[in-house]
Amino acid sequence: MIHLTVSMSHFPRRFAEISVGKSRALLDPDQALRAARHRLSDDAEFATAGIINMSALDLAAGAIRRDETVEIVLLLAFVGGYIDAYTWIVHGVMANAQTANLIFLWVYATAGDWTKAFHFVPPLLAFAAGIVIAAWLRRAAGERASAISTLLEILLLIAISILHNRLPDLAGTLGISFVAAMQTAIFTRVEGVVCSTVMITGNMRQAIEAVFLAAAGGAPLGTLRRSGIFFALCAVFGLGAALGAFATKAIPDLALGLPVVALLVVLLRCEASHQRAVQ
User: Do 215 and 189 form a contact (C-beta atoms < 8 A)?
Assistant: First the structure.
């Protein structure tokens, strides 16, 4: 603690008495002000370091949200790749990659093939609707939004698999794009870092950047681990796409069963975390 007192009775000009701990010194006002500023700066740095250390301890102690753990995000990446392969093979559109749908729309539109161009409009609209519902759910349900959205995804995928033979285009292009939108809007981070479970472009960029930072030197602690997580997200997304393509061709009527099982695991893990928090 810094104490500044000014004495005018014993000195010909103003002097400030500064004390730090048990040490005392007589300084002129300018020197005292500089000393006080230096001391306050040191205290601020110490407090900031303490906050950072507390954050690191919280993460190490398991304070990471359950829906941001590596386990959950990898399962969701598997689902993302799987349903993208499914919708492409069955319906000729992308459930997750709306960039591709928009490109195909304008490619066919500029060629004058409006029938094929409009084929890519429903997934875009369904994706937009899913984003709106997910945003409302985050506001209304708070931390329960991840579990509720996962339950909705499971129910929708089951309904889509039932309606597959009766309303294939409607079920595929609208329902699955809606599911993908909710997933991408609700599950946006892994261990506090922004990621995607429905596409790999951003994940690949972060993985490669982290490797470069680690190789260049001076990278923060955990940089290589973060790179490994993002590379794993890319690999698992690809694995999901491969299994999705195989299952869609081999057992088309039951192909959506595997992502439903993966989402059930996600739901159970999210609910288990919530129950522990309540207790």
Answer: no
Q: Give the whole-angstrom CA distance, residue 122 versus residue 118.
A: 8
Q: Where in the chain is the domain with CATH 1.20.1250?
A: 64-278
pLDDT tens-digit readout, 32-41: 555 545 554 4
Nearest CA-CA partner of 244 in 94, 21, 48, 56: 94
What pLDDT digit, counting tens, does each position of 72-85 carry? 999 999 999 999 99
pLDDT, tens digit, for every residue of 108-145?
999 999 999 998 898 899 999 999 999 999 899 888 88
- 76 closest CA partner among 272, 262, 246: 262
Give the per-residue pLDDT at 111: 94
- pLDDT of 258 above 60: yes
Is CATH 1.20.1250 what the domain over 64-278 is classified as, yes or no? yes
